[in-house]
Amino acid sequence: MWEYLDSQGRPGLGITTSLCHGWSAGPTAELSKYVLGAMPTRPGWVEFKVAPLTLGLKAAEGKVPIPGGSIKVKWAFDDQGLLTVAISSPSGTTGTLHLPLIPTTTSLFEINGVNQTSTTFEIKGGVPFEMKQTRK
């Protein structure tokens, strides 16, 4: 996010240009909140949810710094359109994964190796979470 653009649409770089504006970090926070889907549900991120908006993207990966560590989220669609999600969070936190709008009537969801049919899953801090969508 540049301070301004010149008439050709290029970053307006000059002697008075500053490249350290706080508001230029806004997209990072919004991408973490919406594309990764990580949001607190209790103060201090003791409880959180992950509800990614995939927006036609094939994949996203990132981490959100919280007290005591980071919540790491990685999701991706394979060539068949099946979703995988991996989440880790610090011990002492709990979360819930809410799947994006994807076809679920013909799918099973494998959570850490166990098949389930739900589209909402519990995440326990300190325990790696892996979800893999499969066909019925």
Automatic annotation (TrEMBL):
Ranges for domain Alpha-L-rhamnosidase C-terminal: 39-104
Record-level GO BP terms: carbohydrate metabolic process
MF terms (GO), sorted A to Z: catalytic activity
Name this polypeptide is given: Alpha-L-rhamnosidase C-terminal domain-containing protein
Species of the source: Xylaria arbuscula
